[in-house]
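User: Earlier you gave me the apo prediction for this protein. Now I'd like the version with flavin-adenine dinucleotide bound, so I can compare the two side by side. Same sequence as before, with the ligand SMILES added.
Assistant: Got it. Here's the input I'm using:
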Amino acid sequence: MGGSRASSTYGDAVRDLRQQLASAPSDAPPRLAKRTSNLFRFREPPTGPTLDVSAFSRVFNVDPDARTADVGGMTTYEDLVDATLPHGLMPLVVPQLKTITLGGAVAGLGIESTSFRNGLPHESVLEMDVLTGDGEVVLARPDNEHSDLFFGFPNSYGTLGYAVRLRIELEPVRPTVALRHLRFANAAECAEAIAEISKRHAHGDDAAPVDFIDGTVFGPDEYYLTLGRFTDDDVPHSDYTGTRIYYRSIHERTTDALSVRDYLWRWDTDWFWCSRALGAQHPLIRPLWPKRYLRSDVYRRIVALDRRYRLSDRLRALTRSPRQEPVIQDIEVPVDRLAEFMEFFHREVGITPIWLCPLRLRGTRTWPLYPLEPDTLYVNVGFWSAVDLRDDERVGDRNAEIERVVTALDGHKSLYSTSFYSEDEFRKLYNGAEHDQLKRRYDRDGRLPGWYDKCVRGR
Ligand SMILES: Cc1cc2nc3c(=O)[nH]c(=O)nc-3n(C[C@H](O)[C@H](O)[C@H](O)COP(=O)(O)OP(=O)(O)OC[C@H]3O[C@@H](n4cnc5c(N)ncnc54)[C@H](O)[C@@H]3O)c2cc1C
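And here is the structure of the complex with flavin-adenine dinucleotide:
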């Protein structure tokens, strides 16, 4: 079913997509034919039907007066930002990896350094057209007969339907983001500062406004918060898209300035710091690595090949190195439990660097499949590496231990990577009863995969 379909209008494209689903064999779940993915649950290449969704990979319209955009569900944030910045606007939350798509970030959650004031990407969606498992395309809004789907869509990971068009809010930008990197001696001090700055949206005796906050941890006694502020000041911009590496600059300097575009993509060039494992930061290799390939989607493709052919595993076996378990997760805990989580994490996992990002729901609305509490400030903790296994450990043990600690601290875990919850636990944590109801209404025949099957069993 793949191939490119030139559809002249949005209505044609929707009809075509419905037709594709209707004519696909019903004995295997369909999959999206997408060139990129940022999931870290690797699956075999599809053998069943695939849906060509290329007609939904673009921005349909930007309305600078209303500060909204109508966007195809499979549009990458890179294309979305390129369409909005010329109007002096950006989405309220721009996940850091260029090929994350709007639909992927809404169905699978996203976060960035504006999340302390703008919440998560799905909270600035005004309405969306969803191709449901039943083959209908429904308009889901917070106030119409499909509001259950609107609120239940975030964290459903394509098990209820696919968003093909979303109308989102935008906010104004200024040309430069001025940065301040603040150092803290431990997690408790850092958590205290996160709470204070997120409350005031300002920092320091001069109460300088703060538009962006995230953090980088290099070790138990080396925590940084990076505060960003929009400015029109005409200051020189740093460039971390070539030989210089952004995350290293955090402990090398206390202030910095980036163009707004470079700020939004500051983490993509080196996939945060994960390009290091692929040699892209080596001083002899870096100058030879073509600049256009310093991108997270290029690194992810390399990792996907490695996983598929088990190259690193074989090399480790040959060199008699310890077995490893990938620990690639984003979790969040309430800010007042951050120090406890970090103490556990440094002791039992030991991965560095680590990414921190505060988030709070934008308002009082809640989202049943990812139950964050309104009025609670959480801190997202991202860690993307591997640990050596002890002789008595099995692959999965360390991830499962992280899950247990996160739950005990009233936190949550994103589902883009591997998970080890039992089905009962999963249903309790993420509201399985609500998902069942939505599945009964929008995917009666179960054309799309089950939620636990997809997110935990990795099917
Ligand atoms: C190392 C690493 C770091 C990460 N860091 C961050 C981070 O800091 N911030 C952040 O926001 N995210 C982060 N992510 C996670 C990423 O946002 C999610 O994995 C997201 O779901 C990926 O979206 P995608 O567009 O690439 O979708 P895909 O990978 O293509 O799909 C993700 C899932 O969503 C479903 N899906 C895709 N499009 C749609 C649609 N239109 N409608 C319904 N369902 C759909 C797919 O079926 C699939 O189950 C990180 C991931 C990794 C691996």
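For your comparison, keep in mind: Residues 1-7 have pLDDT under 50 and may be disordered.
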